[in-house]
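step 3/5: co-fold with D-mannonic acid
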Amino acid sequence: MGAGLPDRLFREPTTQAGIVHLGLGAFFRAHGAVYVAEAGGWGITGVSLQSPGTRDSLKPQGWAYTAVELGPKGEKPQVVTVLRDVLVAPEDPQAVLDVMAAPDTHIVSLTVTEKGYCHEPSTGRLNRDHPDIVHDLANPLPKSAPGFLVRALAARRAAGLPPFTVLCCDNLPENGRVVRGVAGELARLIDPALADWIEAHGAFPATMVDRIVPATTPADLDRLEAAAGYRDEAPVMHEPFRQWVIEDAFCGPRPAFEAVGVQMVADVTPYEHMKLRMLNGTHSSLAYLGYLAGHQTIADAMADPVFAGFVRSLWRDEIIPALTPPPGEDLAAYASALAARYANPAIRHRTWQIAMDGSQKLPQRILGTIAESRAAGRAVPGLTLAVAAWMRYVSGRDEQGQPIEVKDPLAPQLAALWRDDPAQTVAGFLHLAQVFPPALRDDAGFAADLTAALSALVRDGARACVGNAAHA
Ligand code: CS2
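step 4/5: write tokens
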């Protein structure tokens, strides 16, 4: 083991914290935190809502860490020194509320994953039966992200302080509106006057975030140590590409984001649709079909011509026709750029990692495109096949009959829906109101197409189906 991160690299003073970030995972440390560091003048207090691992690794390093760019031609490490502190919420929720309610906190940003908002994915409404929400309604020391937002905003109101801006950085559709909705609903259940105050004074700008950040592996730590000459216990790995589009609607001060390449816009929706449907939609499609076909990573799947052709046809024939391009964006060029990003052999982004939490991801990534296309009379066989592959994946058995480690908040419920008869399996899945929108639940043609896709998947296997679906 070599020396730790050199002192001179991580003791840069930051003038103020200003930002509290809930959900200090690899994605935020490789994306938002890097932009904030470059903008200058702001620091970040990170909060882990679950486990102490990141805090424990970063503390001896003075909260500094290395963000390693994985380019097709080599690796570029950069030391990020923007974190001022890391708190672990379950250890001391009051400390988290205190820093969120501090006068010099102006922004609370979040990457808590789709399921962290405790909402119903098909509607965006708060799930009042969620155990953490039930807990947070009864206890002033919260567990959930919406609970922390609402209790901290209550403390600010009581102290005569303005609210902070809530900056959601998760891959949800209209993410600002969703967080405003869940926080507002929870606040109203706790104190209607608080809900009115948040509605009148709060700000929940929508954002589109993009950077591919595969999970860091022990081999990454060793490789970085050999190359950089110091040991970092918690580096993050990322692709060269990055994009951040933010609705310019803050209720207080913010970093000079526009100076570091963030697109500050009036309406994020077209960017969000483009990214969620073109990137995340095909990521999930490649994850389920690729996993079943034996591809470990997205780059492996893209190296298989059958899959590369399939993903191109998804963009060209099924997803782009259902999108309105954001101002100045060429969607065909965006698709080509995505294909190159996926093929980057330096990024080992596991299909298994992307396959996680499908019940929370499918609505905004795939089902919206399917519903809109069917309503407009356009065929979407490739995306329908991807949904069938998700059903097969969450059954918990792969094509060889081996168990799959399915990670999803609904995992047991989903596995129990599998039947020998594909029509029955499909009928069971389509009853899931929290996943499928009414337009698809009531669409007999969709049920029939999905049944045909699932039957073919069981009969012929994923790779053959992907080959048949690709008309590229
Ligand atoms: C991926 C995303 O894990 C997943 O579900 O689709 O994390 C994806 O890599 C990012 O959204 C890229 O910006």
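step 5/5: annotate
The two ends are 50 Å apart (CA to CA).
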